[in-house]
């Protein structure tokens, strides 16, 4: 009998259109999080390559931190992940919510 099994894709499409696999994701010991790496991890979770819990455990992230990355991409795309622009995008989003 076949039991319910989670079907996980072998690869997903990354933020720049390239295929992502578990082997091509950023290394687990990544400490410098540039926009592309953050976006790759979010794309992997959104595509089902990793679960949120697996991503957080693998990269030492909190669920809140990862959720912040997802929100930033949803609101502003990859540029929203730039640490130096967080306040600018936050203010823009808050103005959009008023209208």
From TrEMBL:
Write down a Pfam family by its short name: DUF1153
> Which InterPro entries does the record cross-reference, listed alphabetically?
DUF1153 (IPR009534), Trp_repressor/repl_initiator (IPR010921), WH-like_DNA-bd_sf (IPR036388)
Q: Which protein is depicted? A: DUF1153 domain-containing protein
SUPFAM superfamilies hit by this protein: TrpR-like
What's a single GO MF annotation on this record?
Answer: sequence-specific DNA binding
């Amino acid at each position: 009998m076949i039991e319910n099994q989670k079907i996980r894709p072998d690869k997903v499409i990354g933020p720049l259109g390239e295929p992502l696999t578990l082997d091509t994701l950023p290394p687990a010991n990544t400490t410098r999080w540039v926009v592309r790496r953050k976006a790759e991890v979010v794309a992997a979770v959104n595509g089902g390559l990793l679960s949120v819990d697996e991503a957080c455990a693998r990269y030492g992230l909190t669920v809140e931190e990862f959720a912040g990355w997802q929100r930033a991409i949803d609101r502003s795309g990859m540029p929203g992940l730039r640490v130096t622009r967080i306040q600018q995008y936050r203010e823009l989003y808050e103005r959009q919510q008023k209208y």
